Amino acid sequence: VHYMDKIWSQDTYVGGGYTCYYPPGVLSKYGPAIRESIGGCIFLAGTETALQWTGYMSGAVEAGERAAREVLYSCGKISSSDVYVEEPEFVEVPIQPLEQSLLERFIPSIGFLLALFAAIIAFALFFSSYQGQWRQNF
User: Fold this and answer.
1) Contacts (Cβ under 8 Å, ≥6 apart) of 84
2) Which end of the chain is more exposed for a tag (fewer CB within 10 A), N or C?
3) Are 52 and 62 in contact (CB under 8 A)?
4) First to last CA, the chain
């Protein structure tokens, strides 16, 4: 077993950042594949293999703990039900629900805006073409 430890905050060239972005559905479909061990000998850990908090330090820690439990399971030290465990919530910093503003909930799509503008322009053209006829009638 090989283990390396690094204090990233002491590295002057590490500014932090997010993990790569995948199209919708990729992690749902292929996520379990990137967590699988290779030949039962190599166990992968990293923020990209996390079940939760992918791309964050919390995800990296969770993935490392999971990979360590997979090693223990392969050595016969723990049961399979102990490999994937849900981490308890950190009570000092509880998870806040993400709430969208009214604008975010009802923001129109690009297609809707294009259709709306087209309808406004069509109405304006229609109204302007008959405006002269309406003035003559009154």
Assistant:
1) 51, 66, 69
2) C
3) yes
4) 93
